[in-house]
Structure formats: C-alpha cells, structure tokens
Design brief:
mainly alpha, 4 helices, about 0% strand
C-alpha cells in the first residue's frame, strides 16, 4: 500500500532482500492467524450456533472484536509513529457493527428469557 512506503521512507525495491523475507513471513503469519480465527468462527456458526447454544453467538462477536481491535491498534500505532496515514474509518465502522450486533444478541436473549 502507498502508506507503507511513506511510513518507512523507502520503496519495496530498496528494501534489502533479508528484510523482505522477514516482512513477508510476518504477513504470512498474520494471514494464517486470521484464517484460523475465521475458521473457528465458521465452525462455531456451523455446529453450536445452529444447535442454539447460547455462548456461540457471543463467542463469534468477541472473536470478531478481538480481531478488529487488534487491527485498529496496529493502524493507529502506525499513524501515530510514522508519517503514513492508513485508513482507520472502515475498522471503526466494522467495530460499531459488531458492537451493535452483540448488543442486539444480548437484548434478544433477554426478551426470549422473559417470554419463557
């Protein structure tokens, strides 16, 4: 992304090859971890969520919030420690959607519990 080169004041072609390998390994690690979390969410949605297990819907929200907040922290850290300006509004919007979803899930559970 353009803001990455602004953050380090260099282009990708100027980065030494040993650092390129280190950076790419870090990117692969992050991608693998995001894949693992999304797979866990998919499994939770496929098995316990479909069975109506109450903790499942909250776990999906909490895992999503953990990922979104960690990405937001990274973006804000880059903005505050470099000249780069990576976008953070999409992450804020995603966090708001997740929080609204969690709030709705808690509210719906209370309504269902009161009806029983």
């Amino acid at each position: 992304m353009p803001y990455h080169s602004i953050a380090v004041h260099t282009t990708w072609s100027e980065v030494p090859s040993n650092f390129k390998i280190l950076i790419l390994v870090g990117i692969h690690i992050v991608g693998s971890l995001l894949f693992i979390v999304s797979s866990a969410i998919a499994i939770i949605l496929h098995i316990p969520f479909k069975q109506g297990v109450i903790w499942a819907k909250y776990t999906v929200g909490v895992l999503s919030l953990l990922v979104a907040f960690s990405l937001l922290y990274t973006v804000l850290y880059m903005r505050s420690h470099t000249d780069a300006s990576p976008p953070y509004y999409p992450l804020v919007a995603i966090i708001c959607i997740i929080l609204l979803s969690l709030f709705y899930s808690f509210r719906k559970s209370k309504i269902i519990a009161n009806e029983i």
